[in-house]
Design a protein that fits this description.
It holds the Pfam family WD40. The chain is an all-beta fold. It contains 1 helix and 29 strands. Helices cover 1% and strands 45% of the residues. The longest helix has 4 residues.
């Protein structure tokens, strides 16, 4: 990978982020950083890969996609990829659960499957009410968003049973979920430019709220990605409006609104210490194939170095005065 600080015409890079080159030939479907080093994996629709995740030791990447299988790529050893999981429909989400030494995969076949890499068959298959659209793991908490706006919460200490099933506080289709770093709740983002903040404890329900974002006037854009900062536990949203913003859920404040790129941001992620925020800028198919022009469509991957003021939480405002 080469890094360049040069912006591109058409206001693709208004925040003057570092550009990662070369970028994939088609739209980016996922970005994931190694938990051990600044290695970034991008998956793209050019080979119909939808999702990716790293093993906790940073040695291996797992990818899943439209071919209904999950491959393991031993990056550090330079070995060939091997199939480690399979579904009956495209694989939308993959996550490595370090504490269980298992891979969990979520598919449009309406199942979650847990895989021991030493076995060809899943060690457990969990039925979902609908297709898996989003998944987040922060052991022992796992939250799955499905096509019918259900949010299914699992305690991974007893993964065979649902801990709680919640209808999304948002009225439209779920696009992304992110577990709180303290495992006490989760964020959910939808296609309507809104984020829900939800606590699991019934006694904390008064702290739940939703807020609008990624909107401009009457134009409403999808929230495509939610990422918690690994140190400050604030979070980033990225959307089809081409913007990414940093937020503090505890003080209910937006910390920083970044300048909008001229194309959507379909996915984003922080590196392991939060010093780099990676995001892709490309067509995200939210306006259908008829609005995609292969002749002019380009894909970009950028790296932003967040300043502390952008990502460090602020004290709660207790009075109306400043």
């Amino acid at each position: 990978m080469a890094l360049s600080g040069m912006g591109s015409a058409g206001n693709v890079n208004p925040n003057k982020s570092y550009e990662v080159t070369p970028a994939p030939n088609d739209s980016v479907s996922s970005l994931s950083f190694s938990p051990k080093a600044n290695y970034l994996v991008a998956t793209s629709w050019d080979n119909q890969v939808l999702c990716s995740t790293w093993k906790d030791d940073g040695s291996t990447v797992f990818t899943g996609g439209c071919d209904k299988i999950v491959k393991m790529w031993p990056l550090l050893s330079g070995g060939q990829p091997t199939q480690v999981a399979a579904h009956d429909a495209p694989v939308k989400e993959v996550a490595w659960i370090e504490q269980m030494n298992l891979l969990v995969t979520g598919s449009w076949d309406k199942t979650l499957r847990y895989w021991d890499l030493r076995q060809a068959q899943p060690v457990h298959t969990q039925q979902l009410p609908e297709r898996c659209y989003a998944l987040t793991v922060r052991y022992p908490l796992m939250v799955v968003g499905t096509a019918d706006r259900n949010l299914i919460v699992y305690n991974l200490q007893t993964p065979q049973t649902e801990f709680k099933r919640i209808v999304s506080p948002l009225k439209y289709q779920t696009r992304c979920v992110a577990a709180f770093p303290d495992q006490q709740g989760f964020l959910v983002g939808s296609i309507e430019g809104r984020v829900g903040v939800h606590h699991l404890d019934d006694a904390q329900q008064g702290k739940n709220f939703t807020f609008k974002c990624h909107r401009e006037g009457t134009d409403i854009y999808s929230v495509n990605s939610l990422n918690f900062h690994p140190v400050h536990h604030t979070f980033a949203t990225a959307g089809s409006d081409g913007a990414f913003n940093f937020w503090d859920k505890d003080s209910k404040q937006r910390l920083k609104a970044m300048a909008r790129c001229c194309h959507p941001i379909p996915c984003s992620t922080f590196n392991n210490d939060g010093s780099i925020f990676a995001y892709a800028v490309c067509y995200d198919w939210s306006k259908g194939a008829e609005n995609h022009n292969p002749a002019t469509a380009k894909t970009y991957i950028y790296l932003h170095s967040p300043q502390e003021a952008e990502v460090k939480g602020k004290p709660r405002v207790t009075t109306g005065r400043k």
